[in-house]
Amino acid sequence: MPRALAFPPVIAPELRQSWEARLGDHVVQLGWSPDGEMLAAAQIGGPISVFGSDGRLLLELPGHSIGTLAISWSADSRLLASAGQDGCARIWDAPTGAQLHQLKGGAQWVEHIAFSPSRDYLLTGAGRFLKMWNGSGQHLRDFPDHPSTISGIAWQPRELFFATAAYGQLANYHAEKPEFGKAFAWKGSILVVTWSPDGNYLATGNQDASVHFWYRKSGKDLEMTGYPAKIRELAWDSESRFLATGGSPVVTIWDCGGKGPAGTRPIQLEGHERFLSALAYQHKGRLIASGCQGGAVYVWNHHLPQRPLRGSQLGSAITQIRWAPNDRMLAASTEAGLVRVFEKSEKE
Protein backbone atom coordinates (compact mmCIF):
# COMPACT_ATOMS: atom_id res chain seq x y z
CA MET A 1 0.00 0.00 0.00
CA PRO A 2 1.10 3.63 -0.47
CA ARG A 3 3.20 5.11 2.29
CA ALA A 4 3.12 8.55 3.91
CA LEU A 5 6.84 8.61 4.62
CA ALA A 6 8.90 11.64 3.64
CA PHE A 7 12.21 10.89 2.00
CA PRO A 8 15.52 12.77 1.96
CA PRO A 9 16.19 14.80 -1.18
CA VAL A 10 17.08 12.71 -4.21
CA ILE A 11 20.10 13.80 -6.22
CA ALA A 12 19.28 13.34 -9.90
CA PRO A 13 20.77 14.85 -13.05
CA GLU A 14 19.21 18.23 -13.76
CA LEU A 15 16.39 18.50 -16.26
CA ARG A 16 17.44 20.58 -19.24
CA GLN A 17 15.61 23.90 -19.08
CA SER A 18 14.31 25.47 -22.29
CA TRP A 19 12.69 28.63 -20.90
CA GLU A 20 10.77 30.02 -17.96
CA ALA A 21 8.32 32.83 -17.18
CA ARG A 22 7.51 34.41 -13.83
CA LEU A 23 3.83 35.39 -13.74
CA GLY A 24 3.66 36.38 -10.08
CA ASP A 25 0.45 34.57 -9.12
CA HIS A 26 -0.64 30.99 -8.45
CA VAL A 27 -0.91 29.13 -11.78
CA VAL A 28 -4.15 27.18 -11.56
CA GLN A 29 -3.93 25.42 -14.93
CA LEU A 30 -1.54 24.79 -17.83
CA GLY A 31 -2.52 23.62 -21.30
CA TRP A 32 -0.57 22.91 -24.49
CA SER A 33 -2.47 23.56 -27.70
CA PRO A 34 -3.07 20.30 -29.62
CA ASP A 35 -0.63 21.40 -32.34
CA GLY A 36 2.06 21.93 -29.69
CA GLU A 37 2.75 25.50 -30.79
CA MET A 38 1.33 27.30 -27.73
CA LEU A 39 1.21 26.92 -23.97
CA ALA A 40 -1.52 28.67 -21.96
CA ALA A 41 -1.12 29.40 -18.25
CA ALA A 42 -4.11 30.59 -16.21
CA GLN A 43 -3.50 32.49 -12.99
CA ILE A 44 -5.93 32.15 -10.12
CA GLY A 45 -6.40 35.93 -10.04
CA GLY A 46 -7.72 35.94 -13.61
CA PRO A 47 -5.14 36.64 -16.34
CA ILE A 48 -4.26 33.97 -18.90
CA SER A 49 -0.84 34.08 -20.57
CA VAL A 50 -0.26 32.32 -23.88
CA PHE A 51 3.34 31.52 -24.86
CA GLY A 52 4.87 30.15 -28.02
CA SER A 53 6.69 26.85 -27.66
CA ASP A 54 9.94 28.88 -27.69
CA GLY A 55 8.83 30.94 -24.69
CA ARG A 56 7.75 34.12 -26.50
CA LEU A 57 4.72 35.77 -24.85
CA LEU A 58 2.08 35.79 -27.57
CA LEU A 59 -1.05 36.89 -25.70
CA GLU A 60 -2.07 38.24 -22.32
CA LEU A 61 -5.81 37.63 -21.90
CA PRO A 62 -7.80 39.25 -19.07
CA GLY A 63 -9.51 35.98 -18.29
CA HIS A 64 -12.11 36.34 -15.53
CA SER A 65 -12.22 39.36 -13.26
CA ILE A 66 -12.86 37.47 -10.01
CA GLY A 67 -10.63 34.54 -10.92
CA THR A 68 -10.00 31.95 -13.62
CA LEU A 69 -10.55 28.31 -12.70
CA ALA A 70 -10.03 26.26 -15.87
CA ILE A 71 -8.97 26.44 -19.52
CA SER A 72 -9.32 24.17 -22.55
CA TRP A 73 -8.08 24.25 -26.17
CA SER A 74 -10.20 23.38 -29.19
CA ALA A 75 -9.08 20.43 -31.31
CA ASP A 76 -7.82 22.72 -34.11
CA SER A 77 -5.84 24.95 -31.67
CA ARG A 78 -7.67 28.08 -32.91
CA LEU A 79 -9.84 28.61 -29.81
CA LEU A 80 -9.08 28.77 -26.11
CA ALA A 81 -11.97 28.45 -23.68
CA SER A 82 -11.84 29.57 -20.06
CA ALA A 83 -14.10 29.31 -17.03
CA GLY A 84 -14.18 31.41 -13.90
CA GLN A 85 -15.72 32.75 -10.74
CA ASP A 86 -17.80 35.36 -12.57
CA GLY A 87 -20.37 32.74 -13.60
CA CYS A 88 -19.22 32.77 -17.22
CA ALA A 89 -17.23 30.77 -19.70
CA ARG A 90 -15.41 32.65 -22.45
CA ILE A 91 -14.11 31.64 -25.86
CA TRP A 92 -11.00 33.42 -27.12
CA ASP A 93 -9.52 33.62 -30.61
CA ALA A 94 -6.00 32.18 -30.28
CA PRO A 95 -4.43 34.07 -33.23
CA THR A 96 -5.60 37.52 -32.04
CA GLY A 97 -6.60 37.19 -28.38
CA ALA A 98 -10.05 38.61 -29.08
CA GLN A 99 -12.93 37.43 -26.92
CA LEU A 100 -15.42 35.85 -29.31
CA HIS A 101 -18.16 34.61 -26.98
CA GLN A 102 -19.33 34.82 -23.38
CA LEU A 103 -21.38 31.88 -22.12
CA LYS A 104 -23.58 31.77 -19.02
CA GLY A 105 -22.84 28.62 -17.08
CA GLY A 106 -25.95 28.69 -14.89
CA ALA A 107 -24.34 29.13 -11.47
CA GLN A 108 -22.17 31.62 -9.61
CA TRP A 109 -18.94 29.86 -10.61
CA VAL A 110 -18.09 27.90 -13.75
CA GLU A 111 -15.53 25.47 -12.41
CA HIS A 112 -15.03 23.07 -15.33
CA ILE A 113 -14.65 23.48 -19.08
CA ALA A 114 -13.62 20.95 -21.71
CA PHE A 115 -13.47 20.97 -25.50
CA SER A 116 -13.92 17.62 -27.22
CA PRO A 117 -10.52 16.35 -28.45
CA SER A 118 -12.02 15.56 -31.87
CA ARG A 119 -15.20 17.58 -32.54
CA ASP A 120 -16.61 21.06 -32.10
CA TYR A 121 -18.25 20.46 -28.72
CA LEU A 122 -17.59 22.34 -25.50
CA LEU A 123 -18.80 21.29 -22.05
CA THR A 124 -19.20 23.58 -19.05
CA GLY A 125 -19.84 22.52 -15.47
CA ALA A 126 -21.21 25.08 -13.01
CA GLY A 127 -22.59 23.88 -9.71
CA ARG A 128 -24.99 21.05 -10.57
CA PHE A 129 -25.48 22.30 -14.14
CA LEU A 130 -23.90 20.68 -17.20
CA LYS A 131 -24.22 22.40 -20.59
CA MET A 132 -22.91 21.72 -24.08
CA TRP A 133 -21.97 24.40 -26.62
CA ASN A 134 -20.01 24.68 -29.84
CA GLY A 135 -17.03 26.86 -30.65
CA SER A 136 -19.32 29.49 -32.16
CA GLY A 137 -20.92 30.01 -28.75
CA GLN A 138 -24.17 28.27 -29.68
CA HIS A 139 -25.92 26.53 -26.79
CA LEU A 140 -26.58 22.94 -27.92
CA ARG A 141 -27.94 21.09 -24.92
CA ASP A 142 -28.63 21.01 -21.20
CA PHE A 143 -28.10 17.75 -19.33
CA PRO A 144 -30.08 16.57 -16.29
CA ASP A 145 -29.07 18.37 -13.12
CA HIS A 146 -26.47 16.48 -11.13
CA PRO A 147 -27.27 15.39 -7.57
CA SER A 148 -24.52 17.65 -6.26
CA THR A 149 -21.79 19.99 -7.49
CA ILE A 150 -19.94 18.70 -10.54
CA SER A 151 -16.38 17.89 -9.50
CA GLY A 152 -14.93 16.75 -12.82
CA ILE A 153 -15.52 16.43 -16.57
CA ALA A 154 -13.49 14.18 -18.88
CA TRP A 155 -13.92 13.36 -22.58
CA GLN A 156 -13.30 9.81 -23.75
CA PRO A 157 -10.20 10.07 -25.97
CA ARG A 158 -11.47 8.05 -28.95
CA GLU A 159 -15.24 8.51 -29.09
CA LEU A 160 -17.83 11.15 -28.20
CA PHE A 161 -18.53 9.75 -24.75
CA PHE A 162 -17.69 11.83 -21.72
CA ALA A 163 -17.86 11.35 -17.97
CA THR A 164 -18.83 13.68 -15.17
CA ALA A 165 -18.24 13.25 -11.46
CA ALA A 166 -20.29 14.45 -8.51
CA TYR A 167 -20.86 13.31 -4.95
CA GLY A 168 -22.66 9.98 -5.18
CA GLN A 169 -22.20 9.21 -8.86
CA LEU A 170 -19.97 8.92 -11.87
CA ALA A 171 -22.08 9.56 -15.01
CA ASN A 172 -21.34 8.62 -18.62
CA TYR A 173 -22.94 10.45 -21.58
CA HIS A 174 -22.70 10.66 -25.38
CA ALA A 175 -22.49 14.06 -27.08
CA GLU A 176 -24.71 13.10 -30.02
CA LYS A 177 -27.13 10.68 -28.34
CA PRO A 178 -29.35 12.63 -25.93
CA GLU A 179 -31.09 9.45 -24.83
CA PHE A 180 -27.82 7.89 -23.65
CA GLY A 181 -26.95 8.30 -20.02
CA LYS A 182 -25.40 5.81 -17.63
CA ALA A 183 -24.59 6.43 -14.01
CA PHE A 184 -22.30 4.40 -11.79
CA ALA A 185 -23.55 4.92 -8.26
CA TRP A 186 -20.92 5.32 -5.58
CA LYS A 187 -21.40 6.84 -2.13
CA GLY A 188 -18.39 9.08 -1.94
CA SER A 189 -16.88 12.40 -2.95
CA ILE A 190 -15.00 12.21 -6.26
CA LEU A 191 -12.23 14.77 -6.74
CA VAL A 192 -10.85 13.88 -10.16
CA VAL A 193 -11.87 11.61 -13.05
CA THR A 194 -9.80 10.38 -15.99
CA TRP A 195 -10.22 7.97 -18.92
CA SER A 196 -7.68 5.43 -20.02
CA PRO A 197 -6.33 6.32 -23.50
CA ASP A 198 -8.12 3.32 -25.04
CA GLY A 199 -11.41 4.51 -23.56
CA ASN A 200 -12.19 1.26 -21.76
CA TYR A 201 -11.61 2.33 -18.17
CA LEU A 202 -12.52 5.21 -15.90
CA ALA A 203 -10.57 6.01 -12.77
CA THR A 204 -11.39 8.45 -9.99
CA GLY A 205 -9.41 9.92 -7.13
CA ASN A 206 -11.51 10.42 -4.03
CA GLN A 207 -11.89 12.42 -0.84
CA ASP A 208 -11.77 9.26 1.27
CA ALA A 209 -8.17 8.52 0.20
CA SER A 210 -9.13 5.84 -2.31
CA VAL A 211 -8.86 5.23 -6.05
CA HIS A 212 -11.90 3.77 -7.80
CA PHE A 213 -11.66 1.99 -11.13
CA TRP A 214 -14.57 1.18 -13.49
CA TYR A 215 -14.81 -0.94 -16.64
CA ARG A 216 -16.95 1.34 -18.83
CA LYS A 217 -18.89 -1.32 -20.75
CA SER A 218 -19.68 -3.72 -17.91
CA GLY A 219 -19.79 -1.29 -15.00
CA LYS A 220 -17.60 -3.64 -12.94
CA ASP A 221 -15.54 -1.71 -10.44
CA LEU A 222 -12.51 -2.06 -8.20
CA GLU A 223 -11.18 0.05 -5.35
CA MET A 224 -7.65 0.66 -4.11
CA THR A 225 -7.41 1.99 -0.56
CA GLY A 226 -4.81 2.58 2.12
CA TYR A 227 -3.53 5.96 0.96
CA PRO A 228 -2.63 8.47 3.68
CA ALA A 229 -4.36 11.42 1.95
CA LYS A 230 -7.13 12.23 -0.54
CA ILE A 231 -6.31 11.55 -4.20
CA ARG A 232 -6.18 14.44 -6.67
CA GLU A 233 -3.41 13.07 -8.93
CA LEU A 234 -4.06 10.38 -11.54
CA ALA A 235 -2.27 9.56 -14.81
CA TRP A 236 -2.61 6.71 -17.34
CA ASP A 237 0.25 5.47 -19.45
CA SER A 238 -0.17 5.53 -23.25
CA GLU A 239 -1.04 1.83 -23.47
CA SER A 240 -3.81 2.03 -20.83
CA ARG A 241 -2.06 -0.56 -18.71
CA PHE A 242 -0.55 1.46 -15.86
CA LEU A 243 -2.39 3.93 -13.64
CA ALA A 244 -0.22 6.26 -11.56
CA THR A 245 -1.68 7.77 -8.39
CA GLY A 246 -0.76 10.36 -5.78
CA GLY A 247 -2.04 10.65 -2.23
CA SER A 248 1.42 10.43 -0.61
CA PRO A 249 5.04 11.39 -1.39
CA VAL A 250 5.30 8.11 -3.33
CA VAL A 251 4.25 7.69 -6.96
CA THR A 252 2.12 4.53 -6.74
CA ILE A 253 1.55 2.76 -10.08
CA TRP A 254 -1.02 -0.02 -10.51
CA ASP A 255 -0.79 -2.59 -13.31
CA CYS A 256 -4.31 -2.74 -14.80
CA GLY A 257 -3.45 -5.33 -17.45
CA GLY A 258 -4.68 -8.91 -17.41
CA LYS A 259 -7.15 -9.45 -14.57
CA GLY A 260 -6.61 -5.95 -13.25
CA PRO A 261 -4.88 -4.52 -10.18
CA ALA A 262 -6.88 -6.36 -7.52
CA GLY A 263 -4.57 -8.31 -5.24
CA THR A 264 -1.38 -7.10 -6.93
CA ARG A 265 1.51 -5.12 -5.51
CA PRO A 266 2.01 -1.70 -7.13
CA ILE A 267 5.21 -0.17 -8.44
CA GLN A 268 6.36 2.58 -6.07
CA LEU A 269 8.65 5.45 -7.04
CA GLU A 270 10.23 6.95 -3.94
CA GLY A 271 12.09 10.26 -3.84
CA HIS A 272 9.82 13.22 -3.17
CA GLU A 273 10.14 14.85 0.23
CA ARG A 274 6.55 16.16 0.26
CA PHE A 275 3.15 14.89 -0.88
CA LEU A 276 2.60 14.72 -4.63
CA SER A 277 0.63 17.48 -6.36
CA ALA A 278 0.93 16.59 -10.08
CA LEU A 279 1.46 13.55 -12.32
CA ALA A 280 1.69 13.16 -16.10
CA TYR A 281 2.65 10.28 -18.39
CA GLN A 282 3.94 10.99 -21.88
CA HIS A 283 1.35 10.74 -24.66
CA LYS A 284 3.22 7.94 -26.43
CA GLY A 285 6.39 7.24 -24.47
CA ARG A 286 6.95 5.42 -21.19
CA LEU A 287 8.22 8.32 -19.09
CA ILE A 288 6.22 9.76 -16.22
CA ALA A 289 6.73 13.18 -14.61
CA SER A 290 5.84 13.91 -10.99
CA GLY A 291 5.70 17.11 -8.96
CA CYS A 292 5.27 17.68 -5.24
CA GLN A 293 4.29 20.29 -2.70
CA GLY A 294 7.97 20.86 -1.98
CA GLY A 295 8.61 22.18 -5.51
CA ALA A 296 10.50 19.20 -6.94
CA VAL A 297 9.82 17.84 -10.43
CA TYR A 298 11.15 14.40 -11.37
CA VAL A 299 11.03 12.38 -14.58
CA TRP A 300 11.01 8.60 -14.21
CA ASN A 301 10.98 5.44 -16.26
CA HIS A 302 8.77 3.25 -14.07
CA HIS A 303 10.47 0.14 -15.42
CA LEU A 304 13.62 1.45 -13.69
CA PRO A 305 12.08 2.56 -10.39
CA GLN A 306 15.20 2.87 -8.25
CA ARG A 307 15.66 6.59 -8.89
CA PRO A 308 14.42 9.38 -11.16
CA LEU A 309 16.17 9.93 -14.47
CA ARG A 310 16.25 13.70 -14.03
CA GLY A 311 14.88 16.39 -11.74
CA SER A 312 14.57 20.08 -10.96
CA GLN A 313 13.61 22.26 -8.02
CA LEU A 314 11.15 25.09 -8.78
CA GLY A 315 11.04 26.67 -5.32
CA SER A 316 7.35 26.34 -4.42
CA ALA A 317 4.55 23.80 -4.68
CA ILE A 318 3.98 22.36 -8.14
CA THR A 319 0.45 22.99 -9.41
CA GLN A 320 0.50 21.44 -12.91
CA ILE A 321 2.70 19.26 -15.12
CA ARG A 322 2.02 18.89 -18.86
CA TRP A 323 3.90 17.07 -21.63
CA ALA A 324 3.79 18.73 -25.05
CA PRO A 325 1.85 16.72 -27.66
CA ASN A 326 5.12 15.48 -29.23
CA ASP A 327 6.49 14.50 -25.77
CA ARG A 328 9.67 16.50 -26.39
CA MET A 329 8.93 19.27 -23.88
CA LEU A 330 7.62 19.22 -20.32
CA ALA A 331 5.95 22.24 -18.71
CA ALA A 332 5.55 22.72 -14.96
CA SER A 333 3.98 25.52 -12.92
CA THR A 334 3.97 26.59 -9.28
CA GLU A 335 1.91 28.32 -6.63
CA ALA A 336 4.34 31.27 -6.80
CA GLY A 337 3.58 31.86 -10.50
CA LEU A 338 6.61 30.26 -12.11
CA VAL A 339 6.21 28.45 -15.42
CA ARG A 340 9.26 26.42 -16.45
CA VAL A 341 9.59 24.35 -19.62
CA PHE A 342 12.14 21.56 -19.99
CA GLU A 343 13.47 19.74 -23.03
CA LYS A 344 13.59 15.97 -22.99
CA SER A 345 17.05 14.48 -23.23
CA GLU A 346 17.78 12.48 -26.38
CA LYS A 347 19.04 9.63 -24.17
CA GLU A 348 15.74 9.13 -22.37
Task: Explain this structure.
This protein has 348 residues and is an all-beta fold. The protein has no helices and 32 strands. The model has no long low-confidence stretch (mean pLDDT 93).
Number of structural domains: 1
Read across the widest sheet, the strand sequence of neighbours is 1-32-31-30
Instruction: Tell me the CATH architecture.
Output: 7 Propeller
Strand content: over 45%
- The whole-number mean of residue pLDDT values reads 93
CATH fold description = Methylamine Dehydrogenase, Chain H
By helix and strand content, what is the structural category?
mainly beta
Number of distinct beta strands: 32
The CATH first-level class comes to Mainly Beta
Biggest pleated sheet: 4 strands, antiparallel
Please state the overall shape, judged from the principal axes of the Cα atoms: globular
Fourth CATH level, the homologous superfamily:
YVTN repeat-like/Quinoprotein amine dehydrogenase
Cα-based radius of gyration, to the nearest Å: 19 Å
Low-confidence stretches: none
The count of helical stretches stands at 0
